[in-house]
Amino acid sequence: MFSERMGYIVWVSDLKAARTLEKYGTVHYMSRKMHYVVMYMNADRAEEMVRNIGRLPFVKKIERSYRNEIKTEYTQGVPDKTRFYSL
Known about the structure:
Protein name: UPF0298 protein
Helix content: 10-25%
CATH architecture: 2-Layer Sandwich
InterPro entries: DUF2129 (IPR016979)
Number of strands: 4
CATH superfamily: Peptidase S8 propeptide/proteinase inhibitor I9
Keywords: Cytoplasm
């Protein structure tokens, strides 16, 4: 139903020109202070899009986001000590 999405962080030199990145994927966030754009695109065309984005004159560097690969299920390996400190 939903296609696999990949996240990329694109470091730019000009934020006004970075608005054109919307035609390559979904722009999630633009940092005005640190000059980067967080964007998502379909995984099946991601390599082609990254090559095209890298050719743009205002793009400094492109990094892949590993957010979807980070484990978000946590286990409690340490026993809960709050019962010892309750009144």
